[in-house]
Amino acid sequence: MQPLTHHQILALVAPFSWAGWQVDLAASQRLERRLAFRPVQHPAADGAHPPLSETLWLHAPEGEPFTLRRVLAAPDGLEAELEASGGDAGALLARLAAVPLQRQWRQGAGWVMALSHRVVGAADAAGGGLQPTRVAVQLAGFRLRWTPPPVHSRLGELRLAPAGDGARLPEDLLAVLGYPWTRVVAMDGAWIGHLRQRGTGLAAYAQAERRLVRTAEHLAATLAAPPAQFHQQHRAARWRVAGRRSIPALLSLGLVAAAAAVPQLTLAPESVLRMLILNAPPLLLIGFFCLREVPRIEIPPLPRPLRQAAWLQPAAPAAAPPHTTLTT
Q1: What pLDDT digit, counting tens, does each position of 113-160 carry?
Q2: C-alpha to C-alpha distance for 254 and 284, rounded to whole angstroms
Q3: Buried b (16+ CB within 10 A) or exposed e, 107-145
Q4: What is the DSSP letter of 124?
Q5: Which residues are registered as beta bridge partners of 107?
Q6: What is the C-alpha to C-alpha distance for residues 234 and 248, in angstroms, rounded to an integer?
Q7: Which residues have a Cβ under 8 Å from the Cβ of 106 and sit 6 or more positions away?
Q8: Which residues are registered as beta bridge partners of 135?
Q9: CA 141 to chain centre
Q10: What is the pTM of this model?
Q11: Of 197, 205, 202, 200, which Cα lies nearest the Cα of 121?
């Protein structure tokens, strides 16, 4: 890869200069053929977004389409990116400029959400022609991160990380919202769950964004209240979650009971039911491995009131230095 020459830089930044952008040669990476532009500051908009710093990056590889990336950074560290690829840098700039800042930021009582997207369609398509690539939510004492489902999967990861030393959360913290939300488990200092998604089209991603907004609202309200209030408000939903989680185990017990009852049946050798019973094990095995989401066979815990006083665990006190006595 040849580094960008002075004349190539002048040609690339021309449409940006006409739009009022100034190239930042100190921050640019000529060897990697990446150009940076000076940040532009945007004041806070009531109910829309906090103060934002907007930066543009243009990647111009040899013989390949350009990639233009817009980075919006908030004072608390949240960042929202917007990316588009194509053969005309000026058209990419116009496409990114057509996406308002409010499209990538949401906020409500106790939460702020930054949405990163990739431009994949027309502006009048479902979801504005934008495919989300990641979502970050800042909550009081927590940060939530969502990543889209990988290929051949329908489970997007939800990672809820506490800002302190740790937290004690119930497994059905998000599952009480409905079937699309799975249980959360403690892993690597965070709580990991998943959000189910049907399909991979723009309409499916737009639905995922709406569910993420609902997730942020639920977490902000739940984590701002005492833990004991969670069981009181979601008692019926917690029992429904326990029922859903027990379905695979109940089906397994039903199959075992049915297999035990087969010898008691008197079936003719040419009976269709007999054929189905004899071929049921391999068919069930094939169906099990064809599922996109492997069912979890478990006996879920019964919903009980939460006993802890707070969601976040208090920091451990610092150990006192050893006492030494000097003798003469």
Answers
A1: 999 999 987 766 666 788 899 999 999 889 999 999 887 778 899 999
A2: 13
A3: beeebbbbbbbbbbeeeeeebbbbbbebbbbbbeebbbe
A4: T
A5: 112
A6: 23
A7: 112, 113, 115, 213, 216
A8: 115, 146
A9: 18
A10: 0.82
A11: 202
